[in-house]
Amino acid sequence: MFVSYKWLQDYIDLSGVTAAELAEKITKSGIEVEGVEILNEGIKGVVVGHVLEREQHPNADKLSKCLVDVGEEQPVQIICGAPNVAQGQKVAVAKAGAVLPGNFKIKRAKLRGEESNGMICSLTELGMEGKVVPKEYSEGIFVFPADAEVGVDALGLLNRDDEVLELGLTPNRADCLSMLGVAYEVAAILGREVKLPEISLEPVAEKASDYVKITVEAKKDNPLYVAKMIKNVKIGPAPLWMQTRLMSAGIRPHNNVVDITNYILLEYGQPLHAFDYDRLGSKEILVRRAADGEKFVTLDDVERTLTPDHLVITNGTEPVALAGVMGGANSEVTSDTTTVLLESAYFSGAAVRKASKDHGLRSEASARFEKGVDPNRVRAAGERAAYLMAKYAGGEVLEGAAEADTLTVEPAVVSITLEKINRVLGTELVMKDVKEIFDRLQFAVSIEEDTITVTAPTRRGDIKIEEDLLEEVARLYGYDNIPKTLPIGSSTPGRLSDYQKKRREVRQYLEGAGLYQAVTYSLTSEEKATQFALEKGDTIRLAMPMSEERSILRLSIMPQLLEVLKYNSARQNDSLAVYETGAVFLSNGDESLPVEREHLAAAVTGLWHSHSWQGEKKAVDFFVVKGIVEGMFAKLGLMDRVDYVQAQLDGMHPGRTAEIRLNGEKIGFVGQVHPSIQKELDLKDTYVFELSLKAVLEAEAPVLQYETIPRFPSITRDIALVVNRETVSGTLWEIIVNEGAPLLKEAEVFDLYEGDKIEAGKKSIAFSLKYADPVRTLTDDEVTKVHGRVLNALQEKTGAVLRG
Amino acid sequence: MQERLKELQEEAIQKIEQSASLKELNDIRVAYLGKKGPITEVLRGMGKLSAEERPVMGALANEVREAIAVKIEAKQKGLEEAAVLEKLATERIDVTLPGRPVKVGNHHPLTRIIEEIEDLFIGMGYQVAEGPEVEQDYYNFEALNLPKGHPARDMQDSFYITEEILLRTHTSPVQARTMEKHEGKGPIKIICPGKVYRRDNDDATHSHQFMQIEGLVVGENIRMSDLKGTLEVFAKKMFGDDREIRLRPSFFPFTEPSVEMDISCKICGGKGCSVCKQTGWIEILGAGMVHPNVLEMAGYDSKKYTGFAFGMGPERIAMLKYGVDDIRHFYTNDVRFLKQFSVEE
Ligand SMILES: [Zn+2]
After folding, report:
1. A30 Cα to the center of ligand 1, angstroms
2. I need a surface site. Which of A82, A580, B90, B303 has the fewest CB within 10 A?
3. A468 is in an annotated binding site
């Protein structure tokens, strides 16, 4: 809502309060003023001029040479390019030395050989938005009424010596979608009176109800319909002050009748519609729901197909307006109109919302109906509009109105105790303070002991329960005046859950290991949603996605992490390590919420380590990334419960990928991204892992228990085994550990050889085995015995032979 | 004989002093103290001496040997030290060359902000509550006093999956779920961080996915003044002790009264500048007293229980705190952006 500071003074005395001060006060007490625009900022030297003579520029077809009286001793010559400039016009002249918006300075100049001492201005050149300029002036200069005084400040005449407050209204404050509503709000803030607009009708003897009969079928959506009749109107421009007020509020002027309806919309917040009575083709208004498939051409000349959801005004048979949204082309006021049927009605928000949404017609009128108009202002708004039509369109207002009224208006009556006010706000107000606040709001009050009962006016439809009263008290008492305290009473322990604590540890660990945390989008494309998914299943698709790219909830984080690598790689950062923790979403059928599982994914590409001047350079490989995973499990005490099993996975290198199992359950994977995908994304070798963080963090970690530090020396034996190439070290390791127990304390791979120094199809793996006993020194014989057992088992189970 | 010994001593000592290497010194040791050396030679002639003279001469010979040995040892030490120094001098390195880098990543800036806020409220006795990102319409809207058809639902156009299931538009459903779990009993003190989704085209100030962090306190005597005091503690700890706060009335369907909190602008100190749009204040969060309908729907007696709630956007806070100018940076994950948030404050 745009509120003109000058216009507002029609309803309330603002003396001693500047526009900026008013904006600050309104903001602090409830409605955010998003900006204050000074309309004539940066403009000076523009006056009303009289075009005394106009002739064709001798050297230019499209220019006129004008002699203009600007209120100085001598008229001045001005060259003007506007097509509509003509002799006798009163126009806005930027004299030589004037400044226009954008710090555009007007200087004396020669245009195609002819002297020009200023510029005749269009409204846009004076800083007005093109969309509010009346159509007849949109391609040229603006023309003042003939009685405009020559030499006076043109901006004053255009009401540009004004400031406009832009109110950011929340849905509950629809009452301030009108100048009167704002006046009541300001009155409450300043403690001043509201002056109501003038209505003094002298109706002619004929009765409106003799001209038209109103019938409403859809009583629920239209409980009140009032039609005023105005005869003998003369369609023409509205008075300049009214046009300029509309323009300041963002509405383009059309003609006196239409402008008056818009003016009342702004003044009362009540949308009106003017029909050309003679074009209705009947003496009847019937409000009903549209038939399914019924056709109707709105005044923007678009044919609309209606449904029974839409409320229409008809002439008894055919629609003449889409109720509360837009009138019809068939009954629109034109320059020939002489008799006006003026509609002032109460339409339900739901009905108007449906129609405006279905037809994409959001207007100042529909917005007000949607949010709820004041039922008690419907008649007054019609009366005031009729009065203005009599005054500014020469019309004669018929007596009374034709009505259909089934509206019952019950003002809200709400009680609250002083004790509750102080208990909830933390204040120490007395009843006198509270009463004064409601008096300022012009809410009727009655007080009985500790209880105050408030009758809220119908314009404040948002007041329904005692908390609404609390809010009124709080905002007008002032939040600055409310004390600052902290909650008292039983305290709660503040801490992270074990899960949250461990999640933070995992993040710290990964970052310590060199990975940056990324955050990517949960919504992705159909193709990416299932790529790298641990569990395949139905995808979850948005009912109305904004784009295909963001239409499905992800089943894996990996595709987005790879996108991150691609983005950075294309920007000269082709060695990078990132991770992300976040939910993936598994469908659970249409009826229930999906299963959300927190995943951890990481991706490492390019060089893992580089220290150029010492010649160190190491590209990432499988074991770098596996090491990161192992370290995380070690940190969480889960190292012994995790297995890595060679696996084939979509999108992954078939020979360099392992499934990660925790307590035997598949929870993730680690490996190299398939080279074809690497190529597609233009990435260097990229190794990744993704796992269910939920499974990891919820796994029970062993209880921490001290173990004696060995006091006796250990004995180490190294073995090099020749095995089949397919035999994995994990199998050998398991045999060694099982057979060597309990004296075997550690077994570690220290060499791996595959090559021509060994029989084809074979490889050599060397282990270092450490034996010890916590309570005594082992003898060589004892170790030899156990070690022999280990070797036998290796040979029996895998065919391993000691390398000679 | 005596004279010969003295001579040998002097001669040896002179040679020792002149020696320049350990090898030379060793040669001197062998030459003078070895079995074939001149002193041994002299002692061989002792047989010619009388029984009285023999011990005297023996003692003298030992003295000479001793003196030479001591001198050699001293010289040797000196030479060794010099050799070490010489060796170390050749081992000199350029200490200004860069060290072997230790790779360290860091938190995403949003995580950094969220953890900072979490820790701040944990210190005030709050717990961290989390909930699903895909929600039932009931928890996202209805339980928060936003029945179907409520005009305020337009304020946050949502991504629906079915008519009853949508991507949550705020983290408030976590509050509704937490209250429901408490079965009408207090106290509750939680902070709820998480991802939320709204139908917005991504641009410099809008993102279809963003973070939110909300707080909720429910108890028997929770007052508006407690909200004000709590928010002030938060603002001062988060943005600095010199910041002032101001509450402005606002509207949210789930709170009544509702407020918005501004903090004084750090850039201009409240005088007005382009960052604060000339107002001297910067909007940080929305808050209010929990609406009685919300309490009742979760099973609380709104006559007995009151509560306050507040909510803010970590992106906005990060943008203000670090001067980030485009919300899309948070989701592009350009490493040149990410690595700027490594320093501990
Ligand atoms: Zn500022």
Report:
1. 22
2. B90
3. yes
Helices (H), A393-489: 418-425, 431-440, 466-477
Q: Does A511 touch chain B (CB under 8 A)?
A: yes
Nearest to A780 by CA among A692, A717, A687, A707: A717
- For A413-477, CATH number out of 3.30.56.10, 3.90.1170.50, 3.40.50.720, 3.40.50.300 equals 3.30.56.10
Four-way CATH pick for A2-39+163-190: 3.30.56.10, 3.40.630.190, 2.40.30.20, 3.30.559.70 = 3.30.56.10
Name the superfamily (CATH) of residues A498-698: Bira Bifunctional Protein; Domain 2 (3.30.930.10)
Q: Which two tokens stand for residue A207?
A: 């009765």
Question: pLDDT digit string (tens) for B128-154?
Answer: 999 999 999 999 999 999 888 776 676
Mean pLDDT of chain A: 93
Helix A729-740 and helix A780-798: axis angle, to 10°? 140
d(CA A719, CA A787): 10
Each residue's pLDDT tens digit, B184-204: 887 999 999 999 999 999 999
H runs (alpha helix) in B100-219: 109-122, 137-140, 172-181
Task: Decide: A521 and A585 in contact? Cβ < 8 Å.
Answer: no
Q: Which of B128, B223, B332 is opposite residue A567, by nearest beta carbon? A: B332
Domains A204-405 and A413-477 share a fold: no
**Position B123 confidence tier, pLDDT thresholds 50, 70, 90:** very high
CATH of A44-157, one of 2.40.50.140, 1.10.10.10, 3.30.565.10, 1.10.730.10: 2.40.50.140
pLDDT per residue as tens digits for the range B248-259:
999 898 999 999
Ion ligand 1 residue ranges (Cβ < 5 Å): B 265, 267-268, 273, 275-276
Can you give the pTM of this predicted structure? 0.82
Residues of A in contact with B126 (CB under 8 A): 492, 494
Residue B235 confidence class, pLDDT cut points 50, 70, 90: very high
pLDDT at A519: 98
* CATH architecture for the domain at A204-405: 3-Layer(bba) Sandwich (3.50)
How far is the centre of ligand 1, averaged over its atoms, from the C-alpha of A44 (Å)? Answer: 29
Q: Quote ipTM for the complex.
A: 0.86
SS3 A16: coil
Q: For residue B41, say whether it is annotated as part of any ligand binding site.
A: no
